[in-house]
Amino acid sequence: MAGTAWERAKNQLKKAAGHLELEPLLFAEMLHPDRTVNVSVPVVMDDGRVEVFEGYRVQHSNILGPYKGGLRYHPRVNMGEVEALAFWMTMKTALVDVPFGGGKGGITVDPKQLSEGELERLTREFTRKLAPVIGPTLDIPAPDVNTNANVMQWIREEYAHIVGKDEPAVVTGKPVERGGSEGRTEATGLGGSVAVLSFLAHLGKNPAGMTVSIQGFGNVGRYLAESLSAAGLKIVALSDSKGGIYIPGGIEDISAVEACKERSGKLAGCYCIGSVCDIYNKKKLDGQDVSSDEVLTLPVDIIVPAALEDVLTEKNAPLIQAKYVLELANGPTTAEADTIFAHRGITVIPDILANAGGVVVSYFEWYQNMHGERWEKADVLAKMKKYMEAAVENVWTHARKHNVSLREAAYIAGLERLRKSFQNPSRSPRRVL
Ligand code: NAD
């Protein structure tokens, strides 16, 4: 596979910038993150040893507002990956029109090997190292792969300890009972559903009965599955890091599969009839065990990478049978795969649009914290839907105007917004609610 995620991101930027004759200064700002922070995080492990982990925070751009983006705990995390993810956040927040910039961070660690206590000590120490560069109007972390509401709460507590004041808006994705927003947990998956349904409507396609295969059954994948299933699409395959299930006739009850995964710690073998899930149902359901890679090449209408980046490559792109790729993971498609999809007439709904529901509701959480408000879940999700539909409309218009892919159109639309703010000398953060 050619190039790192960050190199690919920069190439995507260059292509889109070509359509806009972007000012060299703005172009340079986009190519170079404002700040990269590399920290060491020593932790006393349960057995008394001290282990030192490497942590990162990249603040890519704050042209539109404070840096915003998740923290990822994963063995593959490295500075290049975080730079690409931070850049994509800048494009995403611009595209969906929330007054934030782009940032991202993480620690190179396999959190599954840590106890709860070790994870908490790691997070609190990481917060101490990041404290000088984060804050409610400076840089606001959020959950990403293998981090969740509890991790955000630890960061908030540790930050409060350091600055001597509780600042709930220093992170988003907090537990709802502690200042998190209703609807944040579901937002990315539900936003993905809004994105694909809006595009299908633009294309004049009826989604009812369309088949869907999803790689990744975490926070994002599971809410997407539930939402698309409720909208009348047929979820036929799901996978997580340990494998997957394929039921050509459709998975009847996503919540039963969720409960099974919760109980057994893996999705493989979760063949459910009613609430009874076991391997003996496999034959009755005409089911098949599939690997996490195989879920992407099944004969379905829509595939959804909802786990990690670089899973659609020049190797498997020729084997993809779906007509649509809904990118809920960040950066799941390599440049080579993108080219193959374009030649094969496969439509890719790009990550910076498809998975933006999360950052939209993160903005709502931050806004509620800053203004001492609490919104109902229905209200939050209805507002998020409006933002997503407006972004889809914008991308659709740009794709037709410039005769480019949806990905390129999304970049062009994002860059146009950045340019507008960049040209404004006062550069005041905008209020868009
Ligand atoms: P998560 O940790 O809740 O879930 C990740 C899922 O991917 C798990 O089911 C895990 O088992 C699975 N997985 C990991 N490695 C895999 C592999 N090699 N093959 C198949 N499955 C694998 O994370 P999440 O929050 O659901 O995030 C998933 C993706 O969505 C990430 O790329 C993340 O950056 C992106 N994203 C998340 C949000 C959000 O709000 N959580 C927002 C935007 C984008």
Written account of the structure:
The chain is α/β, with parallel strands linked by helices and 433 residues long. The chain folds into two domains: 35-180, 3-Layer(aba) Sandwich (Rossmann fold); 181-371 and 381-433, Rossmann fold. Helices cover 44% and strands 17% of the residues. It is built from 14 helices and 14 strands. The chain has a seven-stranded mixed beta sheet with strand order 11-8-7-6-12-13-14, sandwiched between helices. Strands 1-2-4-3-5 form a five-stranded mixed beta sheet. It has a two-stranded antiparallel ribbon with strand order 9-10. α3 (79-95) packs across α14, α6 packs across α7 (219-230) and α6 (184-202) packs parallel to α13. Mean pLDDT is 95; it is low at 429-433. The structure holds nicotinamide-adenine-dinucleotide (NAD). The site of nicotinamide-adenine-dinucleotide has 24 residues, from α7 and β7.
